């Protein structure tokens, strides 16, 4: 079978976006890494939130080999993944006013912690209110979003604002509105979204910057190792025991 032209075009588009984001967001990534390092150094806890497919990038930094053990998923029931039935419920819940406040109030998040909120459009009530409420509680908020949506779409929150308007640091994924990199003359709808690739890269780059900052300060980053390499389980056991009061994905 011959190579797929469109498959190659998607790789080209994704690589181009990654290079663009690397160059355009380098200072913001460094700032986000410093904020994460500050929180770890001060004894705070880290949380990541995303709804729908944005949750994939949040999950990618939680309980992850090579990741920070103190990063926790702030889960909102019904919006984390497409496993909920019907899958469309998650999209509907993103537009429900007041849900973010209820989730934060019942979560372990407190002043001095840090929350990364991932939302491609940043226009729905859930991520907007999550950022507003988190900052009111004294959390540092990092938003990962496509700023283009704020100029090309309307907010679905009563304030008329977007996620980017309520963050201490914003990481712009530079994803075009609609999140589809390819078109074809014989296919009516655009396709091949790249937001997950780029957003996950932004998250991992931020974690790398945080680890670098901690090391520069003489602090050993609380990193997990793969459980599939010799000594990995023992290493992780020690890290989790040392940081058990800041880890919420295990009892």
3D structure, described in words:
Pfam families: SIS_2. It comes from Streptomyces kurssanovii. This is UPF0309 protein AB0K36_33900. The structure is a single chain. The chain has 251 residues and is of the alpha/beta class. It has a five-stranded parallel sheet, sandwiched between helices. A two-stranded antiparallel ribbon has the order 6-7.
Short description, anyone?
This protein is of the alpha/beta class and 251 residues long. It has helices at 5-24, 26-41, 54-59, 88-93, 99-105, 125-136, 148-152, 195-216, 232-242, and strands at 46-50, 71-73, 114-118, 140-145, 169-172, 182-184, 187-191.
The coarse overall form would be globular
What structural class is derived from the secondary structure elements?
alpha/beta
> How many β-strands, per DSSP?
7
Low-confidence stretches: none
Mean pLDDT: 94
Number of helices: 9
Percentage beta strand: 5-15%
The helicity comes to 40-55%
Write the H/E string, N to C: HHEHEHHEHEHEEEHH
Taking strands numbered 1, 2, ... along the chain, how are they ordered across the largest sheet?
2-1-3-4-5
Alpha-carbon distance between the termini? 50 Å
Largest sheet: 5 strands, parallel
Radius of gyration: 19 Å
Please supply descriptive tags for the structure shown above.
251 residues, alpha/beta, two-stranded antiparallel ribbon, 9 helices, 7 strands, 42% helix, 12% strand, RpiR-like_SIS, UPF0309 protein AB0K36_33900
């Amino acid at each position: 079978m011959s190579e797929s032209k469109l498959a190659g075009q998607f790789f080209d588009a994704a690589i181009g976006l990654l290079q663009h984001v690397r160059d355009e967001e380098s200072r913001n990534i460094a700032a986000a890494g410093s904020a994460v390092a500050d929180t770890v150094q001060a004894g705070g806890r880290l949380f990541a939130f995303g709804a729908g497919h944005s949750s994939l990038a949040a999950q990618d930094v939680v309980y992850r080999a090579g990741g920070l053990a103190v990063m926790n998923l702030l889960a909102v029931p019904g919006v984390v993944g497409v496993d909920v039935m019907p899958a469309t419920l998650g999209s509907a819940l993103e537009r429900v006013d007041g849900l973010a406040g209820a989730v934060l109030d019942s979560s372990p998040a407190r002043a001095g912690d840090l929350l990364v909120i991932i939302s491609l459009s940043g226009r729905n009530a859930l991520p907007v209110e999550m950022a507003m409420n988190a900052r009111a509680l004294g959390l540092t908020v990092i938003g990962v979003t496509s700023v283009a949506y704020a100029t090309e779409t309307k907010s679905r929150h009563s304030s008329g604002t977007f996620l980017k308007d309520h963050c201490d640091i914003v990481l712009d994924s530079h994803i075009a509105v609609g999140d589809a990199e390819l078109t074809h003359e014989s296919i009516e709808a655009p396709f091949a979204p790249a937001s997950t690739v780029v957003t996950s890269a932004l998250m991992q780059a931020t974690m790398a910057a945080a680890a670098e900052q901690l090391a520069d300060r003489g602090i050993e980053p609380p990193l997990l190792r793969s459980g599939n390499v010799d000594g990995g389980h023992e290493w992780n056991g020690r890290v989790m025991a040392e940081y058990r009061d800041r880890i919420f994905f295990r009892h």
